[in-house]
């Protein structure tokens, strides 16, 4: 399906297999050949009923797949929200969600959690939002470390009010954490978002590899399957492996047609296109499709 040289990959079931209800997607991923999955927060609220949580956990266990990453509550994602970490007034939701997020992780053996930073809010002081984000992120990392887990933070594209757009934006946040927490937080390098935001991806990977805690990919433009666009995904993934990243590569793309058709297409065309593998001289992407999470 994908080049063996890519190493372990996982399916993000919040954007793949959406032809099916959420609870059927872990099994669909396993049937398609995946042994690992990841997901955005799979519930409508920050603190869903126990029965909802139990059903999700059971679906993952019954499918026999590993949950390698799980997002915290992102707010009304369909309505444009991108997290509540820096959102004044939603601290109780964050705390309730953090407790549940880590509990799910313990029960399913997931040790990586993505906390979306949150949009700038009308009427809120950006500096106060940033201060709140550091306070809550510190709380999150402290709790995650007790559970043997890592918190990741990512840059995003397509959301004008989301302030973290580059690798340096994210690292600037992580650098404000107390030194005792520095080992418990890392950057989620979503190569699609970095690319469409104009980053020189190979250069970013070279200088930040030691601080990357998870990787996600999609092709550019369009955010579709690898091989449907022009991004040098093969070169970038190989570069990451050469730099020592041995974690999973999350497939977080929007299928051009159906998920199964897209996976069949990956197998047929060898999954990659774009610049020749290993070419690090022209890594700046100039395709800003405006596509989003």
Find the CATH topology.
TIM Barrel
Provide the CATH architecture.
Answer: Alpha-Beta Barrel
Which strand-content bin applies to the residues?
5-15%
Strand order of the largest sheet: 1-2-3-4-5-6-7-8
Q: How many separate domains?
A: 1
Q: Could you state the order of secondary-structure elements as H and E?
A: EHEHEHEHEHEHHEHEH
| CATH level 4 superfamily | Divalent-metal-dependent TIM barrel enzymes
Distance between the termini: 24 Å
CATH class: Alpha Beta
Helical segment count: 9
Q: Which SSEs are present, and which pair or pack?
A:
Elements (H helix, E strand, L loop, with lengths): L8 E4 L12 H7 L4 E4 L10 H14 L2 E6 L19 H18 L3 E3 L11 H21 L3 E4 L13 H8 L10 E6 H6 L4 H8 L3 E6 L15 H10 L6 E3 L7 H11 L24
Parallel strand pairs: 1-2, 1-8, 2-3, 3-4, 4-5, 5-6, 6-7, 7-8
What does this structure look like?
- The chain is α/β, with parallel strands linked by helices and 293 residues long.
- It has a single domain (4-269), classed as TIM Barrel, CATH 3.20.20.150.
- Helix content is 35%, strand content 12%.
- The protein has 9 helices and 8 strands.
- It has an 8-stranded parallel barrel with strand order 1-2-3-4-5-6-7-8, surrounded by 4 helices.
- Helix 3 links the parallel strand 3 (66-71) and strand 4 (112-114).
- Helix 1 runs parallel beside helix 2 and helix 3 runs parallel beside helix 4 (126-146).
- The model is unreliable at 272-279 and 286-291 (pLDDT under 50).
């Amino acid at each position: 399906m994908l080049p063996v040289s890519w190493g372990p990959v996982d399916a993000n079931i919040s954007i793949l297999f959406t032809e099916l209800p959420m609870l059927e997607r872990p099994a669909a991923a396993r049937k398609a050949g995946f042994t690992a999955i990841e997901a955005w927060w799979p519930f409508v609220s920050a603190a869903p009923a126990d029965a909802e949580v139990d059903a999700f956990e059971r679906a993952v266990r019954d499918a026999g797949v590993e949950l390698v990453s799980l997002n915290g509550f992102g707010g009304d994602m369909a309505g444009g929200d991108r997290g509540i970490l820096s959102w004044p007034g939603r601290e109780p939701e964050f705390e309730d969600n953090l407790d549940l997020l880590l509990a799910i992780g313990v029960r399913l053996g997931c040790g990586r959690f993505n906390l979306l930073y949150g949009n700038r809010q009308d009427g809120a002081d950006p500096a106060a939002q940033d201060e709140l984000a550091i306070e809550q992120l510190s709380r999150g990392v402290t709790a995650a470390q007790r559970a043997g887990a890592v918190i990741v933070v990512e840059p995003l594209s397509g959301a004008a009010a989301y302030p973290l757009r580059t690798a340096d934006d994210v690292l600037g946040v992580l650098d404000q954490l107390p030194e005792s927490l520095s080992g418990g937080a890392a950057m989620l390098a979503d190569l699609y978002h970095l690319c469409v935001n104009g980053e020189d991806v190979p250069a970013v990977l070279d200088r930040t590899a030691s601080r990357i805690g998870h990787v996600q990919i999609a092709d550019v433009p369009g955010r579709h399957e690898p091989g449907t666009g022009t991004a040098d995904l093969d070169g970038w993934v190989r570069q990451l492996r050469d730099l020592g990243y041995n974690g999973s590569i999350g497939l977080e793309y929007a299928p051009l047609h159906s998920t199964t058709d897209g996976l069949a297409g990956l197998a047929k065309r060898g999954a990659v296109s774009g610049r020749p593998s290993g070419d690090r001289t022209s890594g700046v992407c100039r395709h800003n499709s405006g596509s989003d999470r």
